[in-house]
Amino acid sequence: MGQNGSMSQGALEFDEQQESADATLTVSQLIDEINGSLADRFGRGVWVSGEIKGFRPAAGKHLYFDLVEERNGQRAVISVAFFMGVQTRLRPKLARANLELADGVKVRIFGTLDMYAPTGRVSFKMNDLDPRFTLGDLAAQREDVIRRLQATGRFAANQETYLAPVPLNVGLVTSIDSAAYNDFVKHLDTAGIGFRVVELDARMQGEECPGMVSAGIRRFGARGDIDVIVVIRGGGSKNDLAWFDNEQIALAIMDSPLPVLTGIGHEIDRHIADDVAYESFKTPTAVADRLIEQVLAFREDAESVWDAITARVASVVDAGSGQLDGIAHRIARATRAVVERSDERLSGSAGRLAPLAASVVNQALTRTATAQQRLVVATRTHVSRATARLDSAENHVRLLDPVHTLARGWSITRNGKGNVVRSVADTSPGDALVTTVADGTIRSTVQGTNP
């Protein structure tokens, strides 16, 4: 610039030459060039793998989500457009693999790159996907979790817990008001037994699922009024049910002092939660059936024991009555025989001892009276002894009834495996005990022992 503020002739000539030498593209032309370069570089499309984030399903609409890769603390993201027509075309393929797209699912998808002119953003237009990649990733994650859990040495810990013979107090972890919840509760109600169900609402899929389910299991395990913990949900896709391969849920089940029954709602696949649980079932209704059968089996056993006690008492009473009748008959026969022999001796002696008849008769009568008195005394003694044996047998049978033993203040204590505790050597500090008294059961933990 000159001193008067105007541009010099040399500078103007340079700018004009530069503008004529460089081509200038419009924005749309630049975007077309970029898209052309992308098409030249990647041809008809490219396969890309990553984890779905920001997925929001919407029926009958185009879907958009991010495909994310986390590596070495770095995060790479590309936007994906999943158009409605492609959704319709791929729906059967997803159904055959029993998969659903959702946040956290790792996928391998095929598509083309495109810069969208109105926003200036490069997106990946999804045209296909590989279900085997997702299924393989789920299987690999499951095997990795199983290896870590087995390394703890406590994989089957919950299967060694004690299931109460009458598990009426149920801690239920599920999504409240779901079909699984309603099926389970209604099935218990129809049994007419009187189950008490304590519910804890939890998400049964998604990123909140492991934390909520494991917290519910641990909370019930810390209570003293629960007999068994039940975890149920309805059916779903493989990736929905794969949340029950989560290590956090498995550890909560393994650490639980109470037996955990699972009914994840699947017909074929098993999950890690099933493997570490006390027992697993295909449906929530099947879990309810297991609890009902447990109570009915106990009731049947109790009735059988009572019938056996009643039969034993009747048998002892009948035997005592038979013995008493036999003794009475033998005494009667002996009395008649003695009298008859005495009469015969008296008749034979009468002719030979006429002079002494009166004396002999008097002596015979005296001996007869004495014999009769002894027989009466003997009869009473036999009857008293037989009655005493009968009363003793009846009392002994009555004492066999455990209800009377418990009512006198006695109790029966079992350890976590259901074995009766007969010595301090049968327990260790920290052991869970179940004590049966006359009107119920008491749960306790061993603080220490004093030999």
TrEMBL record:
Residues covered by the Exonuclease VII large subunit C-terminal domain: 155-444
A molecular function GO annotation: nucleic acid binding
Domain OB-fold nucleic acid binding, first and last residues per copy: 25-129
Annotated InterPro entries: Exonuc_VII_L, Exonuc_VII_lsu_C, OB-fold_nuc-bd_dom
One record GO biological process: DNA catabolic process
GO CC aspect terms: exodeoxyribonuclease VII complex
Name of this protein: Unannotated protein
Pfam families, A to Z: Exonuc_VII_L, tRNA_anti_2
Keyword annotations: Cytoplasm, Exonuclease, Hydrolase, Nuclease
Entry annotated with the keyword Repressor: no
